What does this fold into?
Amino acid sequence: MRIDVVTIFPGYLAPLREALLGRAIAAGLIDVRVHNLRDWTRDVHQAVDDAPYGGGPGMVMRPQVWGEALDDVLGDEPARLIVPTPAGVPFTQATARRWKDEPRLVFACGRYEGIDQRVVDEYASRMPVEEVSIGDYVLVGGEVAVLVMVEAVARLLPGVLGNPQSAEQDSFSDGLLEGPAYTRPVVWRGREVPAVLRSGDHGAIARWRRDRALERTAKRRPDLLAALPEDALDQRDREF
Ligand SMILES: O=C(OCc1ccccc1)c1cn[nH]c1
It folds into this structure.
């Protein structure tokens, strides 16, 4: 997979070069290129924003600069353009699973009040464009959202994670939150690991884990429980 990121703060994407992701990039599993939007400005002040039509607070990112940058970065290689914004469609594990087979993702990082809408409209006429939110809060720019999304997608790519099993069994893969996890020592500050986990009874362990996942999901994310398909919960599950 090739990933391009266009931003006025390229340094914000440095963490992509670290650790697991850094190794995947070094191994050529992912080709990540970060571009500075200001390289496509023509004025001495390298202006990328201007006052909003219709008034109101803040500034809007100018369409011309984005158009020149995206035309250049996109070239002729087809891609999916992703624009992080609080006003976007929620990014979920399902989104990450959908994107993991894409040959190329291009991320446009907005700042200020966002990017002139005509940029999205223009590129949506010739390629898939998604305005996506990573959560209901407002960041200063899209860069952190890109770090989140790139990590969520990259970890699903073959070879990126040491243990592919964990990608499949992580939270949300069965629609429930992950339950509690434990490791050595068996007693820590007087707190003991639940005995069932050390029983060797794999049926009981699986049942206990599902019960904890149901309990946690019912308590923290009743919306996920409600969204489960009809046949996902058996009679016993419904006790939570
Ligand atoms: O703040 C975000 O993106 C940066 C951004 C983009 C456009 C205008 C303002 C801020 C964001 C929050 N959830 N998902 C994305």
User: Anything to note?
Assistant: The mean pLDDT is 94.
